[in-house]
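Hi all, long-time lurker, first post. I run a small reading group and we've been trying to get comfortable going from sequence to structure in the token notation. Rather than ask abstract questions, I figured I'd post a concrete chain and ask someone more experienced to write out its structure so we can walk through it together at our next meeting. Sequence below, copied exactly:
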Amino acid sequence: MKTSMILEQHDLEAIEKHGISEEDAAYQLDLFRNPPPYAALDRACLPNDGIRVLDDKEKSDAILHFNYAAAGNRFQKFVPASGAASRMFQSLLWFLHRDETETREEIEQGAASRKEHYPNLLAFMNGIAEFAFAGDLDKALAGELPRLADQFDYKTILGALLNPDALNYAELPKGVIPFHRYDGEARTPIEEHMQEALVHANNADNTCHIHFTVSPAHLPLFEEITERAQNRFRSQHVTFETSFSVQKPETDTIAVDAKNALFRNEDGTPLFRPGGHGALIENLNDMHGDLVFIKNIDNVSPLQLTPQYIEWKRFLAGHLVKLQERVFHYVTQLSGGIENTFLLDEALEFMKSDLSVVPPALENDGAKRRFLLEKLQRPIRVCGMVRSEGNPGGGPFWVTESDGSQSIQIVETAQIDPDDDAQQAVLASATHFNPVDLVCGVRDYLGHPFQLRNYIDPNAVFISRKSKDGRELKALERPGLWNGAMANWNTVFVEVPAETFSPVKKVVDLLSDVHQNQP
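-- Answer (accepted) --
Happy to help. Here is the structure in token form:
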């Protein structure tokens, strides 16, 4: 794609040095001038209409298939963990950087009237001793935490927790912040993810493969924590194969100003920005995995509350293996030249009923065979979906494709036309939410890894408004990892209990019964 914007030779050299091709740069710049169309929602996915509700027999079958795959040492776990915890402490940072200091009574009054940020600070101060990081905070305050909390000296406490010359939690990744406490021992999400992998991603050879995406600056800290956890689990005769990767510079994107001209740094060079979590499809691709669990770093439960979650991870994984066997059977038959009408119709019915793909009009058996081979030879994912309780973010929808076919997709709010009342009504009708609880099959019927970048919808990008050095800019985020980056995968949604979803978006979420080890 060509762009009408003229790039100077030194711009092209800077772009090439960053690992971005001239063609990709041109495509990105044209997206700002000609944004891609919004998603075309047909309807929200509902139980038994795009969201599968597993019955007892399906659960039993899933466990058998899960055990079979574990015996073949097929499982790995992938955890996006590079994001900083700044959003987690957003309310506390707001109070820390204000000039004013308010009394407990004033904070309580603000919380009672639901003023933004006030309820979070009040809950934080009232429950401060219950946080798993309270011991570290008390050390940072030279043992003065109880006295300062009693005096409601939140400025001093927040300074010790968040300032760069103290614990600096706001700039650390969520994965390294203590979330839970066991008999005085604090554990981070990294360690909790390893604990979970121990019971749902442990292969027959007693090896757990777990991969974290990290920021380069924090890699040593991740390595230190995973080594500590490995030592703790060594008595259970399990070997952890932990690996790490960073987001690739070539997945960064170009920014523009309000007039869609190239945004430049003060030295005149183009500004490059991280391309969002969708860029991690490259990291997942480089794993060359087989069956891969994916779950966000902040969605972890204390040890004694994980049995139901572990059971459902096995259900999801086993159901994927069962579907994958059917897919491989049809691809093998069709690739071998077998294409009788009965087989074609059976495979098409499987696509509709089990993979929720409604094909376009197909004129003859040849068209059916071509459609099936093209659609079936793709990565496959099974995604847990929970009942929505006001959670922000993406959800499951039926989407109409350009060829008239329909498929099910995870769609983000930003992908829907805000001025289209009919589309907004479909969005509002959603009953389920994407908790990012996926199991992925990333190898083909011959056992070869798929090239995952071939299954991205490049038009499912996000354009957001930001600022730098006091200047407005427009930023481009690549298609999200579980929506646009996996848009052309075969997808299955399965309803899972809300109890399997316990994220920490705000620091005060750690005060909930779930994270306080209360069943």
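A couple of things your group might point at:
The first helix runs from residue 9 to 17.
The chain has 16 helices and 19 strands.
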